[in-house]
Amino acid sequence: MDRQEIYSAAGLTAYIQEVGFLPLLDSGIRGFSAEEVVTDDCRYVVFPDGGWDWPLWKWKGPIVTEGNCVYGKFFAGKAGFISREWWPDFYNYRRSMHPVPQEGSIEETILLTLQEHGSLITRELRAACGFDGPKMRSKFDGYVTRLQMGCYVVTEDFVYPTDKHGREYGWGWSLLTTPETLFGRDACLSPYSPEESYARLTAHLKKILPQATDNQIRKLVG
């Protein structure tokens, strides 16, 4: 798909289905991010009065809630999209590399809390897990990022605060859940072994990213 055609959430959704994987921002591989493939008008811009607009940022919610792709911090701790077609292989391999959190661990507490509530925005999850003290935010975010890298936690939607006129503002908060809650466990299962899934993933990425090195491909697959 020609990047000049991508000027809407629908266009980006179609592109994600076409390529299967797409980091949101700079991935270190030329041309391989949503930021690079959308038209210039859809990128981040700051206005003289200090306001800003970023259509790409606003598209994340509609793209995710449509249900055709999965969103989370999957690529070296950075956020991106994975099509539902490729999700089972990605989930299969990543779970093999990130064992189920140990009983009594903070990661297990986070997962159990999400399973109990269904979904929570990040700050609600942090408070529910007892990470509401000073300087605890970054530490907690590190645990959540590791769980996303292991495909245990995904983003269901984005929630924005509203002003007195009911208008949304700010960067928004991730509404987190588990992929099993969001899609059902069967939709996450692959018929292949983790090794076979890895081979399928790397072969596909090498096909769509001929400019990438083997190390860059391995980093993406994780």
Give the CA-based shape.
globular
Summarize the helix and strand pattern as letters. Answer: HEHEEHEEHHEHHEEHHH
- How big a fraction of the residues is strand? 5-15%
Strand order across the largest sheet: 1-5-4
Give the termini distance in whole angstroms.
26 Å
The helix content is 40-55%
What would you report as the Rg, rounded to the nearest angstrom? 18 Å
Main pleated-sheet profile: 3 strands, antiparallel
Compute the number of strand runs.
Answer: 8
Helix count, per DSSP?
10
Search tags:
single chain, 222 residues, alpha+beta, three-stranded antiparallel β-sheet, 10 helices, 15% strand
Describe the secondary structure blueprint for this structure.
Layout: H1 9-19, E1 21-23, H2 34-37, E2 45-46, E3 52-53, H3 55-65, E4 69-75, E5 78-83, H4 87-97, H5 106-117, E6 120-121, H6 122-128, H7 137-149, E7 154-159, E8 173-177, H8 179-183, H9 194-208, H10 214-221
Antiparallel strand pairs: 1-5, 2-3, 4-5, 6-8, 7-8
Explain what the structure shows:
This protein is an alpha+beta fold. It has ten helices and eight strands. A three-stranded antiparallel beta sheet has the order 1-5-4. Strands 6-8-7 form a three-stranded antiparallel beta sheet. The chain has a two-stranded antiparallel sheet with strand order 2-3. The protein is globular, with a radius of gyration of 18 Å.
